[in-house]
Specification:
heterodimer; A: about 120 residues; mainly beta; four-stranded antiparallel sheet; 12 strands; B: about 110 residues; 11 strands; about 0% helix
């Protein structure tokens, strides 16, 4: 079985400061990891994914994520947060042994960036 | 290239009625999946279709069903609606079935059951 944990319900950060959103996962096979962002009353927007290769993945809007196999983590980061980054962020995992399209999502982390 | 398109965006139904939601995937994408999002349960996988065949199904009652057409467009149906079915229903598409494929989501259909 696969599972994802986002330990923080909300992250508060001042504009210009670094932003980190935490995610840990559990899968039985190789992990395929994704980050999505959701703005109010909108669908999910894809930010980035880890499939294989470099542990540091770069994505859209200046976001990046670091894959750590030993800690089973995939934390999302942004060096300098913007007010417009305020949104709901979801980490998701797909188990490589289950090759179909099912994503297991975390509960989401609300990011609030204050001016 | 157009994204995943879902219709209708908003709808209100009465308990006991049924509803059909439609989804047009990104051009060239052949895999379509559906998710339910609620404040209490978060994002939950409903089912996935590829080449008109259901490939995977989440833990939902039989009142929830779906299908995919030969042009990859998909519909999901919920019969005998309950208040708890009020949710945002998200459709997503990807090119194929490979685990590394990115899944792109539509804007969703907001269903309110009264």
């Amino acid at each position: 079985a696969q599972s994802v944990a986002q330990p923080e319900d909300q992250v508060n950060v001042a504009e210009g400061n670094p932003l980190t959103v935490k995610c840990t996962y559990s899968v039985s096979g190789n992990p395929y990891l994704f980050w999505y962002v959701q703005y109010p009353n909108r669908g999910l927007q894809f930010l980035l994914k880890y499939i294989t290769g470099d542990n540091l993945v770069k994505g859209s809007y200046g976001f990046e994520a670091e894959f750590n196999k030993s800690q089973t983590s995939f934390h999302l980061k942004k060096p300098s947060a913007l007010v417009s980054d305020s949104a709901l962020y979801f980490c998701a995992v797909r188990d490589g042994t289950d090759s179909w399209g099912k994503l297991q999502f975390g509960a989401g982390t609300q990011v609030v960036v204050t001016p | 290239k157009a994204g995943v398109t879902q219709t209708p965006r908003y709808l209100i139904k009465t308990r006991g009625q049924q509803v059909t939601l439609s989804c047009s995937p990104i051009s060239g994408h052949r895999s379509v999946s559906w998710y339910q999002q609620t404040p209490g349960q978060g994002l939950q996988f409903l089912f996935e279709y590829f080449s008109e065949t259901q490939r995977n199904k989440g833990n939902f009652p039989g009142r929830f069903s779906g299908r995919q057409f030969s042009n990859s467009r998909s519909e999901m149906n919920v019969s005998t609606l309950e208040l708890g079915d009020s949710a945002l229903y998200l459709c997503a598409s990807s090119y194929g079935l490979e685990s590394g494929n990115t899944i792109y989501f539509g804007e969703g259909s907001w269903l309110t059951v009264v």
